Each structure stands twice: as C-alpha cells, then as structure tokens.
Amino acid sequence: MTTPDPFLIDGYRVIEEGPGFIVVEKASGLLSVPGIGPDKTDCLVARVASRYAGTRIVHRLDCDTSGVMVLATDAATHRRLSMAFEARQVDKTYVACVAGLMQSDSGEVDLPLRKQVLGSSKQIVCHKHGRPSQTQWHVESRLQSVPQSVRVESVPFFPCSMVRLEPRTGRSHQLRVHMAALGHPILGDNMYAPPNVFGASTRLCLHASVLTFEGRTFVAPPPF
Would you tell me how many other CB atoms lie within 10 Å of the CB of residue 58? Predict the structure, then answer.
C-alpha cells in the first residue's frame, strides 16, 4: 500500500467546511472507509470524525486514488448528498498520468464492467454481463518521461500522457479499467497495468481534481 502523501496532515486536508458537510482532499494510500479486518480500521471517515463529530461517508475513492471528497456532518445533509450522487447530479473530474502517447486529443470509452469473480475487487470488461460504464477523456499534455514528482529513478524513461477523465457512470475501478482497455494503463496501477508501468511510479497516478455539487465547485490540483 502506498504511504499517505506527507504534505497532507493526517492523510487529508480540509478544503472547505459548509453547513452539514466538509470537503477534503484525501491522500493516496488512505482508505475512504474501513476495510475488512482489524488492520484496516484506519480510514478517512474515522480520521475526519475524530475532529468533526457525526461525519458520514457520502461517496468513496479507491485507497490509492487521491483527491476531492465531500463528507456529511449531519443526517439530513447525508441523505440529500447521497441522493444527488445516486441521481448523477454531481460532476467529477479526474487527472491521470497514463503510459504512452495518446494519439487522439479526446474520446469516450463505453465498455461494460463486472467483477472478475464473485468476491473479487478486480473488474473486467464484459459485454454480456457487465454494467454500462462510460468515461470521457481529454489529453492535457504529452510527456517524454514520467513526472519527476513520482518517477522511480531506477526505471528507464518512457513517454506518457496527462489526461483529464470525466466519468459518466460510477463503477468500481472504472477509470483504471477503461484506460487499460485503451492500451494506456495508469502509472502505478497494481491491478491493471503491466509490471513496468506499475513500477514506474511511486503511487497510482489518479487524482480526483474537481467535484461539483449543489452549484459549488471544489478543486484540488493533482500532486504529480
């Protein structure tokens, strides 16, 4: 598991406190909610709740994905925000660094996903039994090497692309699977990238950079 980014105190930073909610930036390497087993009780919601009583989870980011999250601090706000996420009234934008130089400037992935096997967290593309999953992508820049902030010195340079990802659905691991399916896996991805791409970065290069809900937009620039 990635060590939480040191620039975030206690694995997160507060972006804004609002009536009934708190917006934070979560570090890579910190669970959003408790996992299975006594060694996985430490998580974002527990840490935030120790400072803000009544904190409730509204949505999640993968452990190794960093970025903007909103948590509710009362029951009414939790219900309202949860319904907004369910109704897809929340906009999310991610930034990722992917292997290789993407040829087109933008596009959409429309590939249905399902769990590889029952009880597994790994997802696969399955046109017969998968759930609809769509991601729009846009190339922000093309680089000749992995960003210095996350590059593993022992790994040879290879080209990569910085992309903006806008999921239209919210399937587990959707962005990671979709980018791998395009032939451009995300750097540092321990599940869907080949060993050289996984080992080229000190972390999963996927960051939730923008979150918009109820007419408000919150931003956390990517740390890579």
Answer: 21
